[in-house]
Amino acid sequence: MKTPQPTSRRVRLALSLALIPVFSGGCQLFNEKLTAEPGPIYPENAPMIEVLDVQLFRDVTTLSFTNTTTTDFPAGTLWLNKRYSAPMPPVAAGETIELDLRQFVDEYGDTYKAGGFFAQREPAPVVLAQIELPGNEGEQILYGLVVVQNKYD
Known about the structure:
This protein has one helix spanning 6-23; strands spanning 48-59, 62-66, 76-80, 84-88, 96-100, 129-134, 140-151. It is mostly beta strands.
């Protein structure tokens, strides 16, 4: 009977120690964040004044739009599908902003199904986009955006 060489024992020990994190859940290839801190509740009672002539584009996991109006938008909240929201910075007239879909969260802490190459969930389409801004009297007002593209990959 042959006895194993000392180097082969070391190699086997090194391999087994290297594979421990993989099988114990320490290494995660798909690291999609599925939950976050709960966001605000959709303002059902806020009036939607108008749909702005602003086109919203979705490119896999990012949203972008250009403020094509003549007025500056103050900081507000961007709502998707009457459920998910993310803070929106001020947007000057003519300025383009880009937001990460993975930062949108609902009132229960569920994150938006943004998709992407390593996504664990099927991407959700953006069918309704609204900006919540403060009105003249301090009340919240919704403005619609025109969703023109939903590119998933």
